[in-house]
Amino acid sequence: MLPPPLEPGFRPAALANRAFAAEASMPVRIALEQADGSVFHFSKSILPHQHPGAEYNFLYLERLIKFLLWSRGGFRVFFDGPADLGARLAKHFKETASGKFDADIMGERIYERPFAVVTTKDIPPARATTTPLGRHWDGYRIGFDLGASDRKAAAVIDGKAVFSEETIWNPVPQTDPQWHFDQIMDSLKRAAEHLPRVDAIGGSAAGVYVNNHVRVASLFRGVPPELFKTRVNALFLELKRAWDGIPFEVVNDGEVTALAGSMALGQNAVLGIAMGSSLAAGFVTPEGNITSWLNELAFAPVDFNPSSTVDEWSGDRGCGAAYFSQQCLGRWLPAAGIETPAEMPLPEKLKYAQKLMEQKDPRVEKIYQSIGICFGYAVAHYAEFYDFKHVLALGRVTTGAGGDIIINKAKEVLRLEFPELSTRIAFHVPDEKDKRHGQAVAAASLPAISL
């Protein structure tokens, strides 16, 4: 294993699963069901009861289902395997803090159904749908991208950006949804000043969105639950009405990451990873479509070290956001021997680290090396669940020379540990402007304009 300089205890999920699979011989089946009737099947193997390591079967299955829930999504998990393991899995999602978090988000918040783990041999048949995403460039359009530290807006005419702007904001602690509405509206109006009219608006935002309804979004974490239900849930429908009901489409920022990469590369089978205030991910299939998957890899585990970093929201350990976002950079600064004021916000810590990179400070290089090594192992892990040939890496963390180190280290990991993936997967990094504004421009292409 290639150890990350600042995370010596890192235990890559890809290596742990590979070692487990080498000994596993008892087949099990898992299926996840979504509210629209989609059902996703997975066939794996676990250790037989007599194997001395059989005690690890539960941990393997729990981490696997955790990853599947946040990559695919589902309110019901079907498990065709030993009854005792099925019972432990059901208990985990009912009684443990991290399991209850996943169950609540998946069940009540996203799919609005009670969450359940069902042990059965009678798993429903697989069903899935994919749909084209974006690529509409006709007319006068606005695209926006909402992150936790900045929001971006672009004015686009027949596929060409004529204006783009980035505005610093801090939405997470805000308790009044009207504040969010006004801030987003301000960016839209500023972009509209550069267009003769507005025919459509497309948006990219961190979180889970279903038919323009906000299901789960860290941007609105400060809003009380009741206000979230009554105002935030339909906030983008309210914005649409404010723009006279023109075509208006909002999707997860990770999906737009993948869309931007697919369009820029002229290729499909793209996994997009945006390393910003958190981790966003999206997937364009080999056919050029998106799926009903969640692709919320910020919560998907990549480190199986039981003492790894605790995610501030879910309370779970080893989740992607802790390794591929401003969060990891902030926590690794002290480990690299770089002191910053405790009250300094993460975006400012990132800017400071980037300034040190410009000065070729070897201490901060270790941070980017650590991110890159962890990223390489994570890409190998993602390849177990996604059929991709291209990885697009963007976001504030990849800006500047540090981004080159991240990609080079990720490639080194694949070359040394996963040579079959190294020859199959290509890494891509957009230019600096596309890194910062490409998602807003791509988001503008989301809505179709009715003739």
Strand content: 15-25%
CATH architecture of the largest domain: 2-Layer Sandwich
CATH class placement of the largest domain: Alpha Beta
CA gyration radius, whole angstroms: 22 Å
| Number of structural units classed as domains | 3
The name of the CATH topology of the largest domain is: Nucleotidyltransferase, domain 5
The biggest beta sheet reads: 5 strands, mixed
Uncertain segments are none
- What structural category characterises the helix and strand content? alpha/beta
**Mean pLDDT over the residues:** 93
| Strand elements, count | 17
Shape: globular
Explained architecture:
By secondary structure, the chain is an alpha/beta fold. The protein has three domains: 13-119; 131-255, ATPase, nucleotide binding domain (Nucleotidyltransferase, domain 5, 2-Layer Sandwich), CATH 3.30.420; 265-440, ATPase, nucleotide binding domain (Nucleotidyltransferase, domain 5), CATH 3.30.420. It has 14 helices and 17 strands. The protein has helices spanning 13-23, 57-71, 83-95, 97-111, 177-192, 225-232, 235-242, 253-265, 326-335, 346-358, 362-382, 401-417, 419-422, 432-443; strands at 26-33, 39-46, 76-80, 116-119, 130-132, 140-146, 150-157, 160-168, 200-205, 208-210, 213-216, 248-252, 270-275, 279-284, 289-291, 390-394, 426-428. A five-stranded mixed beta sheet has the order 8-7-6-9-12. A hairpin with a 3-residue loop joins strand 13 (270-275) and strand 14 (279-284). Helix 9 (326-335) crosses helix 10 (346-358), helix 9 (326-335) crosses helix 11 and helix 11 (362-382) packs across helix 12 (401-417). The chain is globular. The N and C termini lie far apart (56 Å).
